[in-house]
Amino acid sequence: MKLSRAQILTAALLLLTACKPAQKFNGEVVEPAQPAPELTGVNWDGKRFLLSEHRGKVAVVFFGYTYCPDVCPFTLAKFKQIYRELGDRAKDLEVVFVSVDPQRDTVEKLSRYVPAFDRRFYGLRLEPKELDAATKGFDLSVQYGQPKHGLETDSYYYVDHTGTFFVIDREGRLRLKFPPNATAEQMLPDLEKLLAV
Amino acid sequence: MKSTTMSRLCLSIALLGMAIGCGQRAPAAVGELEIRDARASLMQDMGVVYLTVVNPGPEDDRLLRVETAAARVAETHESLHENGVVRMAARPEGFEVPAGGTLELGPGGKHIMLIEPKTAQEAAGSIPLTLHFERAGAIEVQAVLPATEEMDHSGHSMDHGEHTTESTAEGAEPR
Predict the structure, then answer these.
(1) A44 and A107 Cβ atoms separated by less than 8 Å
(2) Total beta-carbon pairs less than 8 A apart between chain A and chain B
(3) Is A139 at the interface with chain B, CB within 8 A?
């Protein structure tokens, strides 16, 4: 049987496509990629936020609270560094910080915290029902500690929480997860790959 | 011999010059311990201090507690990561400074937590701390602001609501 040139070319192309190595990521790949859970809340500027409305952009969602003096500021600083590295491409990357502590983290409080790092970051306060939904959707662990200092106005307590970074692609699919201690250098190449699509 | 002495003298002068040139980042050494790179970030209700303690001596020491006039409370704490969960633990026992080793207080690990700190504006560039060690006793140190260099402390002085109409930090409105 003699194959035509077109048939040979088609077969070669198919073979090449099949052999194309899967994209390598530093982060943990979510397989199969699944639609990201919905996330609704109020941003630090007082506007409603729906994660699904940001389809078309890459988003990194992570959880924390403003009373956390150590990990959370350090995390926001990492994304400021990532924004700087991305330059113009940063306009297609949504950085979404979600408070797990709606009792203390009012929108007003978030408005004094999040934009101190970068005004382009989102800082969301979720109503308890919305936070419950996010906790289930993103499979979070959130544990509230006991107040210990007896401050009259605003007792201090810890919130142990999942510190994973959830990366959502332009099609709104949860694609990658990074552990809380992931560095900007580890996350940047993966985000660049998703932004290039 | 003379040239060796001269070399040592030159080296000493150079090191002294470097120390002076480093300003507030210069190490503060008392007894055997040396405190390096003390830095602080002050947020609305919380703050954090990082630093390094070098112990070249033959005996272990321990950072027992911290005092500062710049916050209502200063405590030794540690952030822990366990199975993706970030957890904060108080360390009332303080931190060991091993003989011939260092104690590193840094982001995402051991740190000094400040509750109800002064504002960054009040602190005006640095805050005083007294570190109490088991063996070395009290060591005074100034922690410079900010510890998280990416953070714009001026953002904390924004009046309520100002963020919705003006762009002050990055020149970009929230999207």
Answers:
(1) yes
(2) 139
(3) no
DSSP class of A55: T
Nearest of B37, B67, B29 to residue B147 by alpha carbon: B37
Cα A175 to chain centroid distance, Å, stands at: 10
Burial class (CB in 10 A: 0-12, 13-18, 19+), A85: middle
pLDDT given at position A98: 97
A164 and chain B in contact, CB less than 8 A: yes
ipTM over 0.85: no
Question: Rounded to 5, what percent of chain B is helix, strand, coil?
Answer: 20, 45, 35
The C-alpha of A94 sits at a distance from chain B's nearest C-alpha, in angstroms, of 9
Q: Do A70 and B160 touch (CB under 8 A)?
A: no
Q: Whole-angstrom Cα distance, residue A158 to residue B90?
A: 10
Label each residue of B22-66 as H, E or C: CHHHCCEEECCEEEEEEEEEECCCEEEEEEEEEECCCCCEEEEEE
pLDDT, tens digit, 9 for 90 and up, residues A114-162: 998 999 999 999 999 999 999 999 999 999 887 765 544 445 788 999 9
Query: Chain centroid to CA B56: how far?
Result: 20
Do B150 and A181 make contact, defined as CB atoms within 8 angstroms?
no
pLDDT in tens, chain B (175 residues): 444 444 454 444 444 434 444 434 455 555 589 999 999 999 878 899 999 999 999 999 999 999 999 999 999 999 998 889 999 888 999 999 999 999 999 999 999 999 989 988 888 899 999 999 999 999 999 999 987 655 554 433 333 333 333 333 333 445 5
DSSP 8-state secondary structure symbol assigned to residue A184: H
What pLDDT digit, counting tens, does each position of A12-33 carry?
555 554 555 567 999 999 999 8
Q: Closest residue of B to A109, CA-based? A: B44
Q: Do A74 and B164 touch (CB under 8 A)?
A: no
For residue A71, the chain B residues in CB contact (below 8 A) are: 79, 86, 107-108
Contacts of B72 in chain A (CB under 8 A): 151
Cβ distance A119 to B174 less than 8 Å, yes or no, reads yes
